[in-house]
Amino acid sequence: MYLPKRRSWELPDSALTPEGHYLQRREFLRTLGLGLAATALLPASLRGASSGFPGSLNPSFKLDGVKLTPLESVTGYNNFYEWGLSKDAPSKLANQGWKTEPWTIEIGGLCEKPAKFEVNDLIKALGGIEQRNYRHRCVEAWSMVVPWDGFPLAKLIALAQPKAEAKFIQFTSFFDPKICEAQRSKNYPWPYTEGLTIAEATNELAFLATGIYGKPLRNQNGAPIRLVAPWKYGFKGAKSLAKIDFVAAQPKTLWNEMAPDEYGFYANVNPEVDHPRWSQANERIIGGGFFAGKKPTLKFNGYEKEVGSLYAGLDLRKNF
Ligand SMILES: Nc1nc2c(c(=O)[nH]1)N[C@H]1C(S)=C(S)[C@@H](COP(=O)(O)O)O[C@H]1N2
Ligand SMILES: [Mo]
Prior knowledge:
- The protein is an alpha+beta fold.
- It is about 20% helix and about 20% strand.
- It is globular and about 45 Å long.
């Protein structure tokens, strides 16, 4: 029902799997032989090329003239509160015995095809992955440009077949208080949750990332699979997803529950709507040295052409 429109850039070549994933995700390799039979059952529009070559950058998302944030910054300056509140905590604490492979993700709620997948099998069922360079703007007024690997969320939605009553999708991060000490605390309503409307989720920009710079996601970036909605503040991009549910009503989200006046459900990047405690007009560029500087923030983070129509007639100040 919510089949994504086939776009000019969805050529077989754009859905290839970078070599790094094959080399590093052993489980993926092990199941290669089985995958083909499963993909053959999918409609042609969902099938990508099944052989893995490097260089599968989707040409529609190259971001000409923009500098990619260095890998050290993308993997060393993180927000992942389950693993500490400082920017350098997740790269350390999320890598002390927390296992993110194998990993089961559950697709459920109001859909025809609820299912559990090991993440590598899901990637295979959806025909592989592609690379996209996206701007990444945190609500805290800093930004990066990240080369993600992954697949459009619309592909997963088409596979799950949401029912007509499904109007939103809720994303739920992992919950494992035995391993994650912060999740034993009652100060936050764990697990981390986020949400999108179905119209937002089927927009071509909405992406499920499984890698960065052609390598599997590091734990601190939300391994093995996390949401990326580049026209929204980074907190919408829930990490290390355990569940994706189709729901009828606007789902609860962790930050909105914590501070509804500061973190709205929409959270579209908007230089004209300040956070109650700071301006959103400019952003600090992360990486590339101490003096990388600042730049003006763009409406919808520079993706107005792609997503502006989703919000036609909506008061963006009220629906922040
Ligand atoms: N589960 C979970 N997801 C999360 C967060 C978090 O604390 N926990 N932080 C969010 C915020 S505020 C941002 S800016 C991005 C940061 O992603 P990155 O560390 O890969 O840049 O992840 C988002 N997803
Ligand atoms: Mo953020």
